[in-house]
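Chapter review: from sequence to fold.
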Amino acid sequence: MVPAKGWSRRVGSARSFVGNALGGVRGWTNVASWAVAGTLAYYLWVRPARQLQKEQQERAALAAASDPYRYVEKRKPIPDPQVTFVSSLSLDP
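The token string follows.
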């Protein structure tokens, strides 16, 4: 069974568009260049940004834990009966 010409033409033009968008390099050279670019991007931008965010969160947690004037709840809050008392609601008509 031979595929329709319109279908194969669309697939071919899509492959051509993707190949041109990726710089026109085909095969393993293209894959290797994208792998190198992705690795560099990770180590130059993503990883330092994540480390900075983690350090900021740790500093904020230490600052919050070391604050002697922070508010500490000493009593257990009383639950709202309108929200928690579900057993009085009947699902039967």
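Two observations follow directly from the output. The radius of gyration is 30 Å. Residues 18-50 form one domain.
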